[in-house]
Amino acid sequence: MHSSIACGYAIHLEVNRLQTLSRGRFERQRTGGGPAEDLIHAAVKRAREGDGNSLRLLYLRYSGGVFSYVCTIVSDEHAAEDITQMVFARLAARLKHYEPRRVPFGAWINTVAHNASIDYLRAQRTIPSEDVLDPEATEVDFSRDRLAAIREALATLPEDQREVLTLRFVVGMSVKEIGERLGRSESAINALQHRGRRRLRGELTRLQAAPSAMAA
What we know:
The chain is an all-alpha fold. The chain folds into two domains: 2-125, Rna Polymerase Sigma Factor, Chain: A (Orthogonal Bundle); 129-214, Orthogonal Bundle (Arc Repressor Mutant, subunit A), CATH 1.10.10.10. Helix content is 67%, strand content 0%. It is built from ten helices and no strands. It has helices spanning 2-21, 37-48, 52-74, 77-89, 91-94, 105-125, 144-154, 159-170, 175-182, 186-206. Helix 3 (52-74) runs antiparallel to helix 4. The longest helix is centred in the N-terminal third of the chain and has 23 residues, at 52-74. It starts with a helix and ends in a 10-residue tail after the last helix. The relative contact order is 0.08.
């Protein structure tokens, strides 16, 4: 009982500290350091149960980083603000899928933000679902298990390869468009796409989930 009270008080103090650092809007970089990992773990556990102060702590600690990350994907600060707000508005429900032993909370929340950003871009371009893996594929299995395997495999790729594959095959952008967005040449984008597809194919094969669309 006393431990729970002490934990709640520590979270309350950290919320107050982070609020004094906040300027009332999303910031691309947060200063002043962050709470200890054990306090984050405690906040996550309490947030799962709907504790408002714990949810506030997670928001104050990670919203700036999430916003900055989303900006690199959507290149629109207003849209990035909306996506970030949505990610944290649904956080309490999403936390039931979080496994602290598998990945740090910061990495996990960025994955959630990444998926939300891609959903936003896909909606903007109204890309049909059959284009997710390969624009030339006509028969692709999009079962829940297959999509879970794809997400797991993508997570193993270097960030630049993952970003190129996502923009190319999930969002449906051309190589030229991706190059303009990332500030890189078309040959560099093609090289990243080739390496990324080869590595993704290997990961999907390891997971016994490689579709025929990845065979090329």
